[in-house]
């Protein structure tokens, strides 16, 4: 049976985009991520309200993203893993954010979501690819005959990790690690790679 490794993007392969943007524009409220807020819809509406309040839009965010590089060792880790097995990145980020980062990672397969943007660059809404997108995608892959291994760092990764044959936490919070001790947790790419390959 073929295996697909499903990886989260932000916090695992690249820095958290919203944290980098919050630092760039000096709006600390935007540092809140899925590590802090399990309800993604609540989190995104919170973010959109703050963007409107400060007159910020997609062009400013994209300018920040241009300066973001993958985490040290992430590309090498991903290259090795893709040479060994199928890999899909499942992210709650958006097409309009992710492309420059995917280029720096040599264009791995990415499933993510999409922003609704006005002509002036204001982000007016967002659209999820499907409900519970990470879990739904893992289930769909399994229905096609694939075995899945999943890894991430945040609350929104836990469902796909729980649904997979093997699951891992990578550079997660102490709270998530404590609440989910059944999942091996790693901070270094070499150990993370070895743990995944051992489950193939």
Keyword list:
200 residues, alpha/beta, Rossmann fold, seven-stranded mixed sheet, 9 helices, 7 strands, 20% strand, globular
What can you tell me about this protein's structure?
The chain is globular and about 50 Å long. Helix 1 (17-25) packs across helix 3 (58-66). It has helices at residues 17-25, 40-54, 58-66, 74-84, 95-104, 133-143, 158-163, 174-179, 189-198; strands spanning 3-7, 86-94, 110-117, 123-127, 147-152, 166-170, 185-186. By secondary structure, it is α/β, with parallel strands linked by helices. The mean pLDDT is 95. It starts with a strand and ends with a helix. The chain is 44% helix and 20% strand. It has a seven-stranded mixed sheet with strand order 4-3-2-1-5-6-7, sandwiched between helices. The protein has a domain at 3-14 and 71-113 and 129-198: HAD superfamily/HAD-like (Rossmann fold), CATH 3.40.50.
């Amino acid at each position: 049976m073929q295996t697909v490794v499903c990886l989260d993007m932000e916090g695992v392969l690249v820095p958290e985009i919203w944290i980098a943007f919050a630092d760039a524009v000096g709006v600390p409220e935007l540092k809140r991520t899925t590590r802090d807020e399990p309800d993604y819809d609540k989190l995104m509406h919170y973010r959109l309200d703050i963007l409107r309040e400060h007159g910020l839009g997609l062009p400013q965010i994209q300018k920040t993203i241009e300066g973001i590089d993958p985490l040290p060792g992430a590309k090498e880790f991903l290259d090795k893993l893709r040479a060994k097995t199928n890999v899909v990145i499942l992210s709650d980020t958006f097409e309009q954010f992710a492309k420059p980062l995917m280029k720096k990672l040599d264009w791995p397969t990415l499933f993510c979501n999409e922003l609704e943007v006005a002509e002036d660059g204001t982000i007016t809404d967002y659209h999820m690819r499907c409900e519970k997108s990470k879990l739904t995608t893992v289930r769909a892959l399994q229905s096609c005959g694939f075995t899945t291994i999943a890894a991430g760092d945040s609350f929104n990764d836990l469902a796909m990790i729980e649904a997979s044959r093997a699951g891992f936490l990578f550079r997660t919070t102490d709270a998530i690690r404590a609440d989910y001790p059944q999942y091996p947790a790693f901070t270094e790419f070499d150990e993370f790679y070895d743990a995944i390959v051992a489950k193939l």
